[in-house]
Specification:
The protein is α/β, with parallel strands linked by helices. It has ten helices and 13 strands. The protein folds into two domains: 2-171, Peroxisomal Thiolase, Chain A, domain 1; 176-324, Peroxisomal Thiolase, Chain A, domain 1. The strands form four sheets. It has a five-stranded mixed β-sheet with strand order 1-7-6-4-5, sandwiched between helices. Strands 8-13-12-11 form a four-stranded mixed β-sheet, sandwiched between helices. It has a two-stranded antiparallel ribbon with strand order 2-3. The radius of gyration is 19 Å and the shape is globular. Bound molecules: oxa(dethia)-CoA (UT7).
């Protein structure tokens, strides 16, 4: 038995923040951001919007036009590191909003690799259990945790959510392989130091441990390239494929230079590599599933095409999966 992919959905904030807007907020330039990252603009959640709002909209879009009703769903997993609250989980908020009363629901925390982690969890639960339909969502609003005085990080991130509706099927299914990995020894180079149980909110010590993104960009860059290449090759090897067999590679969209370095190493021509980093920046766990949604709705993928998703993020965590769309 295996997994069949029924549909995808995505939801993005309406507000667009351009590089020109950022020039008015921090000491930066469109030229620096474009040449160092490839990002031109990103979507920013409003003060009233949280991760569950985008997750719910993305899930509804994935259900739209399918014969699947919310009550048919037996599993909801949301990959996020920016939940509305510590608890309840975002997955439970999605379950409530959809009326998916027969679904178990929980969140997975693996930062930018979260969607691939969540999909891997879903595969295990579907193949070993009695689940017919599942929703796997990647959602983050990292801009709420950006320090808008730190030009080295605030220009990089955007918000959004994507959802994948999955059906259990007889036979091998369309998820050909999935590989996940982590290296906790590198946990300090990308983190949100404050706001958790190590340094809970305290106005007196807040300046030492703020709930803002901290990143050692150059170090993260090096690990991201190496790990995503390794992950890609491992997931391809696991299912007996090579990068030549891929119709499309969907890499995590943190930096155009990272994407280009990976494509070069995997010897993939430009038209086989999906890129939307210029429009959205790094949307963390939402990135690869929003890209898959855009690729299939925009005609870059047809049913039966082979696609690989690869991601890397804080933890450090990484993952890759090969699927037949
Ligand atoms: O989602 C998880 C994965 N995340 C990533 O993969 C991110 C990986 N890292 C990166 O993408 C890159 O390291 C960055 C885009 C974050 C930074 O690019 P970089 O080429 O590594 O630049 P840098 O941090 O070494 O900074 C170079 C210079 C510095 O100035 P000095 O010290 O050379 O005078 C920075 O202060 O660029 C300066 N700088 C900026 N200048 C204008 C840093 N940020 C900015 C900015 N505008 N926004």
């Amino acid at each position: 038995m295996g997994l069949k992919f029924v549909n995808t959905g995505a939801s993005l904030p309406e507000k667009i923040l351009t590089n020109a807007d950022l020039e008015r907020i921090v000491d930066t330039t469109d030229e620096w951001i474009t040449t160092r990252t490839g990002i031109k603009e990103r979507r920013i959640a409003s003060a009233q919007e949280a991760t569950s709002d985008f997750s719910i909209r993305a899930a509804r879009k994935a259900l739209e036009g399918t014969p699947v009703n919310p009550e048919d769903i037996q599993l909801i997993i949301v990959a996020t590191t920016t939940p509305d609250h510590f608890f309840p989980s975002v997955a439970c908020l999605v379950q409530k909003a959809l009326g998916a009363k027969n679904a178990a629901a929980f969140d997975v925390s693996a930062a930018c690799s979260g969607f691939i982690y969540a999909l891997t969890c879903a595969r295990g639960l579907i193949e070993s259990g009695d689940i017919k339909y599942a929703l796997v969502i990647g959602a983050d609003v990292l801009t709420k945790f950006a320090d808008w005085k730190d030009r080295a990080t605030c220009v990089l991130f955007g918000d959004g959510a994507g959802a994948l509706l999955i059906e259990k099927t007889d036979g091998p299914g369309d998820l050909l392989s999935a590989f996940i990995g982590a290296d906790g020894s590198q946990s300090d180079i990308l983190s949100i130091p404050g706001g958790g149980s190590r340094h809970p909110y305290n106005p007196e010590t807040w300046s030492q441990h703020p709930a803002f993104i901290h990143m050692e960009g150059k170090e993260v860059f090096k690990h991201a390239v190496t790990r995503m290449i390794e992950a890609s090759l491992t997931a391809l090897r696991q299912c007996g494929k090579t990068s030549d067999d891929l119709k499309l590679l969907i890499p995590h969209q943190a930096n155009l230079r990272i994407i280009d370095a990976i494509a070069k190493r995997l010897q993939l021509p430009d038209d086989k590599v999906f890129k939307n980093v210029h429009k959205y920046g790094n949307m963390s766990a939402a990135t690869t599933i929003i890209a898959l949604d855009e690729a299939q709705r925009g005609g870059r993928l047809q049913r039966g095409d082979l696609v690989e998703l690869i991601a890397f993020g804080a933890g450090m965590t990484w993952g890759a999966c090969v699927l037949r769309w």
